[in-house]
């Protein structure tokens, strides 16, 4: 089965608080381990930017689940590509919340230092996630 990389952005529902975010991460990590998916998530209190890597079937199945999850709104694919190898294979789901440290990366890969991944190209989103992974220890 071909390896695939999917990067999507979504807007979190207004009722999503820190506990809901922790629940999403815990469930995602368990699911991803079972499905042999890897990836990285960058987020703030409003937006998700997530990369998922794995078999085409597992990536597509997971994306369809996200589309039907009421906690995600305006789910949009920024990048979808068959790949030869994983770039985020160290994590079932690495997590990098937005902070003052990520503002410079936002400015490097988008039009402002504010995190709004809807304003990024797929390639810019991918390059930003590659930069962010440098600051995340392996699981």
UniProtKB/TrEMBL annotation:
Domain BLUF positions: 3-94
Residue spans crossing the bilayer: none
InterPro entries in the cross-refs: Acylphosphatase-like_dom_sf, BLUF_domain
Any GO molecular function: FAD binding
Name of the protein: Blue light sensor protein
